[in-house]
Amino acid sequence: MRVAVVQLAADVDSASNREAISRQLAELGADDGLDLVVLPEAAMHDFGSPDLDLAPVAEPLDGPFVAMIAAEAVRLGATIVAGMFERTDGLPFNTLVVVGPDGALRMTYRKIHLYDSFGYRESERLLPGDLEPVVVDVAGRPVGLMTCYDLRFPELARELVDAGAEVIVIPAAWVAGDHKLDHWRTLLQARAIENTVHVVAAAQGGDRYTGHSLVADPWGSIVVEADSHSQVIQADVTADDVARAREVNPSLANRRLGNDRLPNHRTSSSS
């Protein structure tokens, strides 16, 4: 599976963000043979200042942001995962949309763990999603979805793997600060190692966020990594890599606790 990871710095102007994303995706074409394109959390509209009300800027799933993502998915012939704020009757959700190469909305994942940490209170502006892992089929590969702060909760990654995920996709707006880049890299590599999966992480860059989008293989090695600027990185993530890692390091099979497969999970298919 060929993946492209788009790192960008979103603004608090949704129309401007759509234009910027389209310009950045213009670097890619159908002849790149991409199966999956991943954009960061809050690509639709940045979080802004801590007191910014996100409800008025949130969009429905049939709004202009998803329409733009759908058009790009069709142009590229690829599945796109991107972060947005989803409109409700009250506080919005922090939502990942999964749009297939036919332009259809395949799946949503609403962030479970809201960022009430490091002095922030995401729960004052957004609703948490249901406690339900989400796995979607992309080009024949089961892909699990997480968002940013979810990364600090290894039990969610393990439930995704128990639901069949061989790749974990993590869009993020990982706020910069002391120790934060070390945490970002270490946790991404740990999720890859302990679950013997590929990890594909798309982060916001710029001055406010850490950047350093990356792809890690099932051994935890970083295959490709961005810096802090807007850019697109690409990598191949293969089922053979996962199978080989799990043959040599069968830690999932050797578990003594929590070795039952999760009975309740959602799946969806896309080509």
UniProtKB/TrEMBL annotation:
The keyword Hydrolase appears for this protein: yes
This protein's record includes keyword Ribonucleoprotein: no
Segment forming the signal sequence: none
Domain CN hydrolase span(s) in chain numbering: 1-239
Gene3D superfamilies, per the entry: Carbon-nitrogen hydrolase (3.60.110.10)
Domain of life: Bacteria
GO molecular function: hydrolase activity
Family designation: Belongs to the carbon-nitrogen hydrolase superfamily. NIT1/NIT2 family.
Listed name of the protein: Carbon-nitrogen hydrolase family protein
